[in-house]
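re: ur question from the group chat, yeah i did fold both. here u go
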Amino acid sequence: MKAMLIQEYGANAKFEVAEIAKPEVKDGHVLVKIEASSVNTVDTMIRTMGAELPLSPATPALLGMDFAGTVEEVGEGVDDFAVGDEVYGCAGGLADLPGTLAEYIVADCDLVALKPKNLLMREAAALPLVAITAYEGLQRAGIAEGQKVLVHGGSGGVGHVAIQLAKYWGAEVYSTGGGEKQLELIRELGASAIHYKSESVEEYVEKHTGGAGFDVVFDSVGGGNLLNSFDAAALNGQVATTVSMCELDLTTAHFKGLSLHVVFMLIPMLHDHKRAEHGRILKDLARIIEEGGVRVVLDENYYSLEQVDAAHARLASGKGMGKVVVDL
């Protein structure tokens, strides 16, 4: 089968076209003909950082985590899928799990679900990593009807799903953005937009919560921005983040009695830990999407498998809006 491989990691790493063996189905897995994949920040990190990240595959590396496609073969012990099923999932591209920048993948059936019927393959392929992340973060933060929720980075991959899920679960949602295009998308998704470059945390907390703070802060920016999340959170509030590889002063979190939830959705793949939970989340997300609760925002550009270098560059540029997808 055709695949795009990385022979050597680094800032100038390039994908190369290769012919590799088509994988064989095994017990508890499904063989999927991939029709689309998508690019996530972690993919670009692996490509450039290599061995600096403990989750990077050995080279030559077959990257790519998200996919949507059609089941071609079912392994022993698989009861929930049949040949011809259209599925989506996040099941490879790290450690010893071959990725999705290829024509086929053998995926653990616990990491897969039936694709939402109302989505195109390329739309479904954009979702698994970011949607599972948003779902897990909000659920762990105890999302509930009537809460005031702040989403940092609401025009990004994770953020645009977090806005919609928070609204679906009955919250009053606010979100930060740094430019008019981002703010416009945030408004389209149903959240009150906050221009973080022109409004201070203190100003927007006062404006939107009367100074009390937000019940839940979902921070898809993370790092140093977590200090803004602590400042924006209510007393005994909940903060969920996707980026916490940093050193921070937790004084504000202490005196507010905040709970911090770190979401690292790759754990089930890396450690074979509670993988079925990802399948369950994807199944529930499909139901929510089919009800109209979440729509997918895709970047305007189209990329073929051979153009994956350009797809990575698009995501890294920060100029894209929504998820960058690679069509097979």
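okk and heres the other one u asked abt
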Amino acid sequence: MTVESGTQNVGAQPSRAEARDGFDEITVLWISEGMSCDGDTVSFTAAGQPAVEDLVQGLIPGLPKVNLHNKVLSPSLGGEEFLAPFRAAVRGEMAPFILVIEGSIPNQNIIEGDGYWTSFGNDPETGEPLPLNWWIDRLAPRAWAVVAVGTCATFGGIHAMAGNPTGSMGLADYLGWDFRSQGALPVVNVPGCPIQPENFMETLVWVLYHAAGAAPPPPLDPMLRPQWLFGKTVHEGCDRAAYYEQADFAKDYNSPKCQVKVGCWGPVVNCNVPKHGWMSGIGGCPNVGGVCIGCTMPGFPDAFMPFMDEPAGGSLSATLIRPYGALIRRLRGITNVALNREPKWHHNEPELTSGYDPYWRP
């Protein structure tokens, strides 16, 4: 079946889905041969809402049938058997498909064809390894949607930090931020180091509902991240945020209080981990005493190092809030003491002293 492609309104709220035909079946081609540790694939397998098993078994109402090709989850023996659907897509023999890229994209131009930074399969004619860039150049223009999974693929991540010799970058940097897929979608960026499992699954499911003709395009922020997942800061969803308001800061990592002064960047980082947790709603950096190091942000890691030092501006904001926080903490403490007393009429004496006085009593 065919899909009438709509335009993607980046940064806007989704409008009502237009009535249109959708796909009954779609293939997900997942390449994790970018500059990466494969941690996003491993994390993705922990998703539970929905689980990858629910997705591929067709247990989610309204979604097209999904054929997933990921090297970790593939039942094939690998080699050419695993590569077959990818080669078919390059030849234009597979449509529609969603291309998922894991890992940052190295710059092949800086080595002028002399070798490769990372590869995926071999050229059947020459036997030489095929660089990741070769696959992206041929698959991305044919893909109905292109999704970058993890911070390396979205913004370059650790492999793209200052001083790296590979010229690594994010997928949108490589394809262009004005790139549009066959489904008229820009690159969909789902950052995280590694990806938070449910964040990726929610995004993929939304894209699949869009492919089925049952939903509008996913709303994305200016950095092409899903807006409903990355529209708030870590601090806004953090259980420790009230301590910041009261200027009650942790001095070490064993404290349950706000960790801004021991290196947490939560007040300025777009991420929902405090709300979502990590697996089954449990865990997540600040939830378990870890500082936020900004791994979902385009400037990661350079802009957030050294990780355990107090963030730039943290000292000023903490100083400004200290008088207010101290006063509020003291006043709340007084009120707390008052409210932790039982009413005086709670006693076992013969006289009722609660003030009970029904109007009908003569």
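fwiw on the second one: Confidence is low (pLDDT under 50) at residues 1-8. Residues 232-340 form a domain with the Cytochrome-c3 Hydrogenase; Chain A, domain 2 fold (CATH 4.10.480.10). idk if thats what u expected
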